[in-house]
Design goal:
Layout (H helix, E strand, L loop, with lengths): L12 E5 L15 H15 L10 H18 L14 E2 L3 E2 L3 E11 L2 E10 L7 E5 L12 H12 L3 E5 L13 H18 L3 E11 L1 H12 L3 E7 L5 H5 L20 H5 L7 E5 L7 H4 L1 H10 L6 E5 L8 H16 L21 H5 L12 H11 L11 H17 L13 E8 L2 E9 L5 E9 L10 E5 L12
Parallel strand pairs: 1-14, 6-7, 6-8, 8-9, 9-10, 10-11
Antiparallel strand pairs: 1-15, 2-4, 3-4, 4-5, 5-7, 12-13, 13-14
Length: 488
Amino acid sequence: MRGYPICIWLWMAVFVARLAPVTAFCEPSIMDSKEAAVLLTGYFEAMSVPKPFHLLEGAALQTLHRQLRERLLADVGLDPLPERIDLDVHRSKPIAHPWCTIEMIEYQLWPGVYSQALLLVPKEFQEKPAPAVLCPHGHWDHHFAHPDVQKRLLVLAKMGYVVLSPRQNHYENLLLGFSNQTLMIWTNMRGIDLLQSLPEVDPARIGAAGASGGGLQTQMLAALDDRVQAATIVGMTCDFREILFPHAAHCRCNHWPRAMAYTDAPEISALAFPSPVQYLVMNDWTRHFPHDNFPKIQELYRLNGFSERVSCTYWPTGHTYDRKKRERTYWWMERWLRNHGSHHTLIPTEPEEVVTVFPPQLLDEWPVPNPGNKGLEALAAHIHDARHFKTKEIHDPTNPIRYKRRMRQLLPEILGLGTGLAPRFDEVQVVDARKQDGVTLSRVRFPSEGNLQVPALIVAPAVQDSESGPVTLILDKRGMSGIETLEP
């Protein structure tokens, strides 16, 4: 998460040999697994401390937010943004519903790479052009066809909103700087492009709402695309450490390189400012949000004159997007997309009976004729062609020196050295030393990041002609067992 820390050394044995003959032997471990686990636990706790949330005003806030957006886009592999090629929309046969027309559609993200989505167009409009809501879904069974997801989409359509729910696709190639968030953010940005292209939609009144993984997508989209005029983030925003450690790590789509190096999820969500943002939280990883994070976000909005544009509501429930939370979502969209922020907007009541498409897989697997869709597999070749390292041709004899200097400057960033913790220990700790077969064996620990120590074995001649001499450094991923294979 936070660069590529030096702690990878902990699973390697380090041998420093001063050109002494070494016979095969078995040495007890320098650090047992329990002690290593304690060190790593402390390390992760220190590395996951939330970054400061900056409470700024006016131009200073605008500058900070612009810088954070630029850095986030670079880290998720969207700097520059991909070319907005033709959406090339393909549609399924429509599914009839009393409130709306439902279609499975496919729209183009990259050449030959499409995303699927459900498109719901109301049969009755309150006004035209109408507001629209992008509704990313999370890790639900049957995706956007899960009954609880369907209810939200259908009720919004009944209320006169055009609704688009893109499929949550997963694909990453971190070696080429492409994460799951690269795909999801771009899928949702292109989803807004699609909504704005529809004649039924008012392009200036588009909201976003999602829960869990869909909440993360909503958070990232609202932070990076100012076309989102109102957002409801459900069961997601919290400090990164709430979803990374210590209980368990969420789906890998929640993470991307360098995410924790300079910011945290609550500040990312506040990048949506000044757009209205509503947080719906519960007894999951978001339970600490109302007192740990929301007051700062609320203060940021207040300092900049928009205190009414942010809201947080907590429920003592599990990780669900139940009826009461859906009704708060409808209310937030009504208030900001239709009623210009009026405090008098009432919370709509969801109908007691919402007829969903059953069985869900009928909707989830509704076919879309599109012979041009090459699938997500086509992304691999596209990303490789666009991003793989190309050897630089250097003709000017002075250029190689500048080029190498530039590459050396980039290496510390690539390795995450700038995000590491200052060593807590100053000196090498000698655990013990003994003589064997004409050599001195010293078990030591070198200081590393924070509280980490790298276990190592120093093998030196028992009798030395001088205090200094040539040194050989041996790294072996097998740990201490690698010593047994060393030959004289």
